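Consider the tokenized backbone below.
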């Protein structure tokens, strides 16, 4: 087994054109560059208290994101799951039931927005070994996937906020929502 070093990658912030550009499918999942990017994305998500991160957020226009839900300083009540790389993902079904929830983003530091998302989705993706998967996700994990999937299509959560009244700073969010 090859041991690869892990790096915390620089996260592109709102205003960087890479966040507004559509991504490209990954043709060779087994390429060392792709495998290293997966390791670095997982490491970056964990070290920055993210519950997910997409390749465009680290200036790679590839259809890849990591779902790494776990309680942390930014998401105190997140469910625990093993970090999951999703390569060339497709959301193949959305439930009609929508849920409003507060989202933040590593690429939009210091802000939260109230965003409506489907409560349940069905996703088709390949793992880091090239194996296909299809699974239904619900609630907070479904929200993470929809958020990261938006990044692959050049969108950020701000595009889904209905009103500027549905925005607040991270500090205000933590004092009102988390501690309130």
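A designed sequence for it:
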């Amino acid at each position: 087994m090859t041991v690869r070093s892990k790096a915390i990658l620089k996260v592109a912030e709102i205003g960087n054109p890479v966040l507004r550009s559509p991504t490209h499918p990954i043709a060779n999942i087994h390429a060392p560059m792709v495998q290293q990017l997966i390791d670095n994305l997982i490491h970056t998500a964990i070290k920055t208290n993210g519950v997910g991160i997409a390749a465009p957020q680290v200036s790679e226009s590839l259809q890849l994101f990591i779902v790494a839900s776990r309680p942390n300083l930014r998401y105190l009540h997140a469910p625990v799951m093993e970090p999951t790389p999703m390569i060339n993902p497709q959301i193949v079904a959305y439930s009609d039931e929508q849920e409003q929830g507060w989202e933040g983003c590593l690429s939009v530091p210091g802000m939260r927005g109230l965003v409506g998302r489907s409560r349940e989705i069905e996703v088709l993706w390949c793992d880091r070994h090239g194996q296909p998967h299809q699974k239904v996700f619900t609630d907070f994990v479904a929200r993470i996937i929809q958020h990261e999937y938006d990044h692959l299509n050049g969108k950020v959560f701000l595009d889904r906020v209905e009103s500027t009244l549905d925005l607040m700073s991270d500090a205000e969010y933590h004092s009102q929502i988390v501690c309130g």
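The beta strands are 52-54, 64-67, 84-94, 98-105, 108-118, 120-126, 132-138, 167-169.
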